Amino acid sequence: MEVLREHLGLDRMDLLAHSGGANLATQYVTRHQERVGKLALIAPSVMAVGLTITGATRLEIASLRRDEPWFAAAFAALETIVAGRATSESWQAIAPFSYGRWDEAAQAHQAAEAGQRNREAAIAFAADAVPCPGRHPAVNPRRDPVAMDMTALARTLLEPIPAHRTAGIEVLRAADGIAEVALETPKELTNVIGSLHSSGLIALIDAVGLAAIIATSERNEEMEDVVPLGAAASLEFLAPARGRLLATCRLGDEAHHTLRRLLSGETDRARLSTRAGVTDTEGTPVCRGNFDWSIRRMPGSAPYGVSTTAEH
Fold it and tell me: Would you tell me how many other CB atoms lie within 10 Å of the CB of residue 181?
């Protein structure tokens, strides 16, 4: 956005952002307040400001449309989703809530949605930074300009873990505090609606959090004797988790700083949290999860010491 402003030769500009675009606009304003005159957010995503919309709030807002002819079926489906019993049919049934008018034009627009999704673009949209044409390559200001790729180390440490091996988890990327892991939903780990069982999802959230932790190291030796212990975990189910699933995790600044103190030898233990999201092949969010970690340096532990034993 800043590149566009410079290209247009504007000293200040008014911004209007819709849905996921509100995340970009909000982050731009926090960095360049002096460049923005007015800001309008239309049906905004709240991810950029760290808010969580509860199921009760969603039901309360949806009930405002109780006079619509389609309301009963859509609201019943929403109640099913909020209760954690979502199916693909229930997600389809709540589509009218996303439109001001559920007329023929809206229905045609919604029917074309699947063919307009771009999974690669969705992944790039959620990334830490991307290079801008004509400008210097994007770098993470927390680290050296050269990002250290720890993908090979993460694969060596994580893929043999029994729970990860059973689920068929593969590490796709682990670099500069950012990780991506994936799996093909095993039939033996599905529930009654054919969705990945919660045990498989927790293993996926666990793996991508660990991969992000490993991705924060600057050399392999920093992980020697380091033991991450899972202290607590929580999952939010958003849609059925079927087929190939991708989990992504990016450490926040505070977690990154805390972990670097331990890896550099400044302290021998750290506590931090990782937050991950899981999407299916269409880019649909199916799950979000948090993992709290107690990480210790324990000389004499197993090589690299990676463990996911729950702490009590």
Answer: 33
